[in-house]
Write a structure and sequence with these properties.
By secondary structure, the chain is an alpha+beta fold. It contains 15 helices and 24 strands. The N and C termini lie far apart (60 Å).
Length: 462
Amino acid sequence: MSTYVVGVDSSTQSCKAVLVDAATGEVVEERRAAHPAGTEVDPTEWVAALRTVTEDLLPRASAVAVGGQQHGMVLLDENDDVIRPALLWNDTRSAPQAEELLEWLGGPAEAARRIGSVPVASYTATKVRWVRENEPRNAERIHRIALPHDYLTWTLNTSGDLWTDHGEASGTAYYDPESKQWLRDVVEWAAGHAVELPRLASPNQAVGQTSTGALIAPGTGDNAAAALGLGMGPGDVSMSIGTSGVVAVVSDVPSQDPTGSISGFADASGRYLPLATTLNGAQVFDKAADLLGVSHEELSDMALSVEPGAGGSVFVPYLAGERTPNLPEARGQFLDIGADFSRETMARAMIEGLACSMAESLRKVEQQTGTRAQRVLLIGGGAQSRAFQQILSGVIGGPVLLPETREFVALGAARQAAWALSGASEPPRWEAADTVEVTSDPTPWLLDRYVECRDRIYPETA
C-alpha cells in the first residue's frame, strides 16, 4: 500500500493542500479554501481554512508540513491567544521602523552582516516595532511571536510546542543566517522586552504529531517550499509571479548584500536562498485588464499586437509601493506617452513594465551571487500570461521554462514531510515537472530604457 503525506500552502490569497504519494511525488488529491483579503488578517481565519482543506486528508496521511507566506507577524499572549490581527508581508506601514532598525543595527553593511539583509517594511521585526510604537498596550502583552506557517503548524501539533525552520526564521530580521541562530537583542529592541520565539528545527526534523497520528515536519516559508517543490539545483533560478514577484537561486553560501537588493535568506534544505522580491506581481495584469475592460487572454492578445517598446511609452509598475528597489511610498506611473498611445500600447507597456521589473531583479541576483542563470523557471498564477512569457524571454535575452502547472509550494511542503518521515539525509527524489520552453527575439534594450526612466522619477535608485 502507498504511504501518503500532506503538503499545505497557506498563501496570502488562499490555503491549498495536496495529498501526495511519499515515494513518487504523485499528487493524489487537492483541496483549496479562500483567505480574507487585505494586509491585516485575523490568523484564526487561516486556521479555519487549514482545517477545511486538511480535515479529510490528514487521516489518510503519515506526515504533514506547512508552507506559508513569509514575514507575517502573529503575536500571542501568555495564554497563547492572538493579540491583534497579523500584519502581512505586504503591509508597508512599518517603513519608518525599518529605517529605525537599519540605524540601530549600524547601517546597511552591518545590517547585511548581522541579519543577511538590509531591513525593509516586509520583515517581521519592523512590524513588531510598529506595534510597540503605536499600540504599546498590545506590545506589553506579547509573550510569543510566530510567523504564519509557525502558527498553523502549532495548531496542528498535539505537543503544544512552537517550531519553525531556518528558511522561515531568516525572513524575520532577528535571525543570523550565517550562524543560524536567533538574535535576541534585535527582537527585544522590537518588542521592548524579552519574548519567546519558536524552536529552530533542522530541515528533516520531526517536530510533533497531529491528533490523527501524522508526523509533523517543520514546514517553511513559501519561497523555500517552492524551491523544494521545483527540485531546484545549482544554476536554476525560479521566478514566481503571484501577489508578489520573486526571483530566487539556491546557493551553498550565505548572501550579505549591503545595497539591500538581495535578501539573504536560508532555504529548506540546509542551504541558502538569496532572492529579490517585488511587491507587485500579477496584480499588474489584473489592473491592466480592469482598466481596459478585457479578459487576461484578450490583454495578452492586445499586448502582443504591438511591437516591442510600446511606441516609446514606459510603465513603472509600483502599484503597491516597492521593495526591490526599496520605495515603500512609490506608485505606478506611465512615462513618455506619445500621441499614438492606444489601448494596445497601454497593454504592452504595462506588461513590459512588470517584465522589466522582474528582469532587473534577476540581474541583481546574478550580480550579487556571482552566478549566471542556467535555467529560468517561471511559476505562479501570473506565469500563465502568454504576453508576459514572450516579453520576459526577450528582455532577459534567453529562454523561459514553464513547468507544468502544479502547486509547487504545497508540493515542496509535501516533499519535506516525506523527507522527515523517511529520516534520510537528503529529500526524496521525485520526478521533475515537465517544462515548455518559450523564446523570443532578444530585446535587452527594453530593460535599459526602463531603468533610465525609473531612475528619472526615483533618482535615489540610480
